Amino acid sequence: MAMESSTVDPCGATELLRDALTRAGIVLPSLGADYGSTLGLVNLGRVHPNVAVRLAFRLDKGHDA
Questions:
Q1: Cβ atoms of 25 and 3 closer than 8 Å
Q2: Core-most of 20, 25, 64, 65, by most CB within 10 Å?
């Protein structure tokens, strides 16, 4: 699903991503809209290495489906 960056609300995008990650059993504690950015970015934050590995595995698994 391609969307123009100017049409996507960072708060809404954050919630969509948080919900998808929750369904995958992954929590990014510092996930949130970057309110300091004029670009409307989503801050994924810092994660423990095992979370990064689980996220990569889930992304690859979804890609292969």
A1: no
A2: 20
